[in-house]
């Protein structure tokens, strides 16, 4: 976004919505503003109910609000990233308003989550595609997209990792408000949205973590069905041990610094597939969320 904002021939209109505005999920809109971005619209569309009905209502409210915003902004192109279910709302509105869509990180596979279906839907709704790998590019082409529309760009988040100045260990500990031990483990686990019980695996995970006798840093789950259950049980786990803490929100540079100093990461987050590999961090992938 900084490159777009700095380009003399481009104008960036940034729409911030959903969990970014939620106090429960850390109000990350504040970090966006601290990074110097001007926000064109803020859409409070995240339904408070932690259920599939809540997810559906979130999409519906977002569509209604985005219809007003995008019809007024009328951008030349709408840029969407990845596979969050909320992205179905701006894609649907843009399709109806005949606004071209560019999609980042299509062509990946994560068979254990609805993200996979969302990602593929966004691919078919989009006009330009920027894939993270050559294999992802071939998958997008196999879906019938014209070759001139598909570019293997790599993952922009990793560009940010390379360009950014990561906090030192001392700065990291100051940001976290605690001293880090050696070794320490990061846990990044999210609800498995294709399971009827989206949190079934977490009980086995927490039980297994009892055998890890060193420090544990837990990251807050995504705003998916079952997230409140995960948070509740993680907080209960942390109450039992002085060397465990759950963080609601970590900015990108702090999180990557946390990865770079860790001993391993455990869970089912895509950061265990992408970012962890970039800092040579061992990963224990749990369950089916990242299958494929």
TrEMBL record:
SUPFAM superfamilies in the record: UDP-Glycosyltransferase/glycogen phosphorylase (SSF53756)
Segments forming domain UDP-N-acetylglucosamine 2-epimerase: 3-292
Keyword annotations: Glycosidase, Hydrolase
Keyword Ribonucleoprotein appears in the UniProt entry: no
Molecular function terms from GO: hydrolase activity, hydrolyzing O-glycosyl compounds
GO biological process: UDP-N-acetylglucosamine metabolic process
EC number of the protein: 3.2.1.183
Gene3D superfamilies hit by this protein: Glycogen Phosphorylase B
NCBIfam families: NeuC_NnaA (TIGR03568)
Name of the protein in question: UDP-N-acetylglucosamine 2-epimerase (Hydrolyzing)
UniProt lineage: Bacteria, Pseudomonadati, Pseudomonadota, Gammaproteobacteria, OMG group
């Amino acid at each position: 976004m900084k490159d777009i904002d700095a380009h003399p021939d481009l104008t960036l209109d940034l729409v911030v919505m959903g969990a970014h505005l939620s106090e429960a999920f850390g109000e990350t809109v504040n970090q966006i503003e601290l990074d110097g971005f001007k926000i064109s619209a803020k859409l409070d569309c995240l339904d408070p109910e932690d259920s599939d009905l809540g997810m559906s209502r979130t999409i519906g409210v977002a569509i209604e609000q985005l219809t007003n915003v995008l019809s007024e902004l009328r951008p030349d192109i709408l840029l969407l990233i990845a596979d969050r279910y909320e992205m179905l709302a701006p894609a649907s509105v843009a399709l109806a308003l005949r606004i071209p869509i560019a999609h980042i990180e299509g062509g990946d596979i994560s068979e254990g989550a609805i993200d996979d279906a969302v990602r593929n839907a966004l691919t078919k709704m989009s006009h330009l595609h920027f894939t993270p790998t050559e294999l992802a590019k071939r998958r997008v082409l196999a879906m019938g997209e014209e070759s001139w529309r598909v570019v293997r760009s790599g993952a922009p988040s990793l560009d940010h990792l390379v360009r950014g100045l990561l906090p030192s260990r001392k700065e990291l500990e100051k940001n976290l408000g605690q001293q880090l031990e050696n070794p320490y483990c990061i846990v990044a686990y999210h609800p498995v949205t294709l399971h009827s019980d989206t949190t079934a695996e977490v009980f086995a995970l927490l039980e297994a973590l009892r055998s890890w006798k060193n420090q544990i840093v837990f990251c807050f789950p995504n705003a998916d069905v079952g997230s409140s259950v995960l948070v509740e049980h993680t907080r209960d786990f942390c109450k039992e041990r002085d060397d465990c803490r759950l963080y609601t929100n970590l900015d990108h540079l702090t999180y990557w610094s946390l990865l770079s100093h860790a001993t391993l990461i455990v869970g089912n987050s895509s950061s265990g597939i992408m970012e962890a590999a970039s800092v040579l961090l061992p990963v224990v992938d749990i369950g089916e969320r990242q299958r494929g």
